[in-house]
Amino acid sequence: MSEAQSAAFTSAVETLDSKLREREELLLCVDFDGTLSPVVEDPDSATMLPENRAALEALQSHPDVTVAVVSGRELSDVRSRVGLTGVTYAGNHGLELRTEGTTKVHPVAKERKSDVERLSAELRGTFEEVRGVHVEDKGQTLTVHHRRAADAHAERARRTVARLVGEFGGETLTVSGDEEIIEVRPSIDWDKGSIVSSLLHDRVSCLPVFVGDSRTDEAGFRAVERDGVGIRVGEPDDRATAATEFVSDPAETAALLEWFQRTGVDRLTGPPETTQANQAGPTGTSSPSPSSSDDRPDVADD
């Protein structure tokens, strides 16, 4: 661990140290881009810091720790970039889940995948020759990257996506985004917070921790806000956030994970002999639904 850490890092560790002493288990959920990996211009070149991989590998082997990587990337993409077995993976903001050797996909997302595919093909043709605009088809969702595009091209991308979603998706797809990307997803009340809540189901003495850097991670922060700790990667600023603690960058994420590995897990009280950990996924009768039973993911072929 680096000798010089930020004051925010020290505050986060002090909070975690206190809360871990009251719990038997740890559910550690981490985002990928901007959290385990530095943000880069080309999303395809994003690489996880070796220190983060080493710390996660050690943590996932602890009997009282569940590690979940919760990302907006496609499930197969984030799994290949992290490359660790025994870790729970949630892709496409929780629409896909890989846990205990089983892959699960939200049933409504599966139904609407054809709408996403048609839209993706149309957008690829539209922006094929437009410099700085890249369409990423993620199976259940798609992302239009325009951070390297001229302002006029970025504005054209936003208008075009909004128009085509209306034509191809109607009420089945929804559009969101920020100054760098446009995201299109199925219109489902399901996000990173929903998947975190499902992983927490029936865990009475578990400390949930969510570490992330972007606006889509706010749902994860809200999911752990009552009983756990939300940690935003980035300097504290005026941006509204449900996170209560901060670390400065992916390098400090590594220091945080190393602290969990070397010190934090020793603070856990450990389960009584009669207690068994119950790992629930976003499917099955034991998992809560974010809106209705029709929205629960089911098991898909891996």
Automatic annotation (TrEMBL):
Residues 293-302 have a biased composition (Basic and acidic residues). Transmembrane segments: none annotated. Pathway: Glycan biosynthesis; trehalose biosynthesis. Its EC number is 3.1.3.12. SUPFAM superfamilies: HAD-like (SSF56784). It catalyses: alpha,alpha-trehalose 6-phosphate + H2O = alpha,alpha-trehalose + phosphate. Coiled coil: none annotated. Pfam families: Trehalose_PPase. The keyword Magnesium applies. Gene3D superfamilies: HAD superfamily/HAD-like, Trehalose-6-phosphate phosphatase related protein, domain 2. Residues 262-302 are annotated as: Disordered. Residues 272-285 have a biased composition (Polar residues). Its cofactor is Mg(2+). GO terms for biological process: trehalose biosynthetic process. GO terms for molecular function: metal ion binding; trehalose-phosphatase activity. Keywords: Hydrolase, Magnesium, Metal-binding. Belongs to the trehalose phosphatase family. Removes the phosphate from trehalose 6-phosphate to produce free trehalose. This is Trehalose 6-phosphate phosphatase.
